[in-house]
Amino acid sequence: MKPLTDLPWTGERFVPGVQGETALEHLHRYALAQLLAPGKRVLDIACGEGYGSRLLAEKAVLVIGVDLDATAVIHAKEKYSLPNLKFIQGDCTSLPLDDQSIDLVVSFETLEHHSEHDAMMSELYRILSPTGVLIISTPDRQHYSDERNYSNPFHVRELYASEFRQLIQRYFAYADFYGQRVVYGSLVAPLTGKVEFTSFSGDCNRLAGSPSVMVPLYLVAVASRHTLPAIPSSLFDDTLALVLETNALRQALAETKFELNTVYGSIYWRITAPLRFLRKGIKRITGI
Fold first, then answer.
1. Which of 4, 23, 69, 149 is the most exposed place for a label (fewest CB within 10 A)?
2. Which of 6, 11, 103 has its CA nearest to residue 50?
3. Distance CA 87, CA 284 (A)
4. What's the average model confidence in pLDDT over 251-267?
């Protein structure tokens, strides 16, 4: 059933139907969270449209989606209805949940939208069970903003990698850190399960994982009569070439648009307009 309240694409909050890098980033994160969700009581902070909470509910015993935006909560309740899924309005620094009532907290791209980071982490620590797990993501200010000379108008306080690490380690004794980036490149990964590797695919309706490359186009073998050398999963990153190519196409389109505007705005184009109109009329009448 179509929800009564549609959520528009603002350029920041991801909604189903949006394609490109934003979709890849969000779906990959939720695919990883799904791996941690089976049998768990899950909290999805800043759940937004609700698609991610619904995906988590396929694996978890209970999923609670929390968002500060009342409109988003209404939308999610109307669109996604499952017995183990509920949505509530709430603030990440003051969650309406009992102590140690959650086994897995999912918080994707929440930190940068406010400045009360310690208050949020303290609250997450409170509601997590003693063996509970937090999976959280946020932009790296160095690469996301500084190096690109970019300022996201939706972000309040972004963290550098060192600040993010220190924040997490202030509250949790054990923590592993990963990096995420959408790239254009060539991937070589094992076809067997000897080296742990998972590739994900899917959309907002369904996520799937495979212990190898999804539908590989080429096969690579490493063989010997002796002990084999270790060959890591690897990615040849050619994102820069794609960016340069895209920028070149944009520049060419801009130049073409400028040339067309110059022609259309010229005195010659305006003077000859009646002749073109007459020619089109004759063509329609004669068919020539």
1. 149
2. 6
3. 61
4. 77
pTM given for the model: 0.76
Query: What whole-number distance in Å separates Cα of residue 74 and Cα of residue 88?
Result: 9
CA 47-50-54 angle, 5° bins = 110
Mean pLDDT comparison of 88-92, 145-149, 212-216, 232-236, highest-scoring range? 88-92
Amino acid at 203: D
Contacts of 245 (CB under 8 A, 6+ apart): none
Q: Specify which residues 140 forms β-bridges with.
A: 159
- Judge whether 68 and 91 are in contact, CB under 8 Å: yes
pLDDT class of 2 with cuts at 50, 70, 90: very low
Taking Cα atoms as reference points, which of 14, 35, 9 lies closest to residue 24? 14
Q: What angle in degrees, to the nearest 10, is found between the helix axes of 161-171 and 117-127?
A: 40
- Residue 50 burial by CB count (10 A; 0-12/13-18/19+): exposed, middle or buried? buried
CB 237 within 8 A of CB 182: no
What is the per-residue pLDDT for 79?
93
Question: How, if at all, do strands 128-137 and 102-108 pair?
Answer: parallel
Q: How far apart are CA 210 and CA 233, in angstroms?
A: 14
Q: Nearest-CA neighbor of 123 among 101, 93, 144, 158? A: 93
Cα(50)–Cα(66) distance, integer angstroms: 9
Q: What is the DSSP letter of 144?
A: I
pLDDT class for 270, splitting at 50, 70, 90?
Answer: confident
CA angle 206, 32, 112 (to 5 degrees): 105
Q: How many Å apart are CA 15 and CA 23, to the nearest integer?
A: 9
Sign of the torsion formed by the C-alpha atoms of 60, 66, 69 and 74: positive
Count of CB atoms within 10 A of residue 184's CB? Answer: 14
d(CA 114, CA 93) in angstroms, rounded, equals 10
CA distance 282 to 276: 10
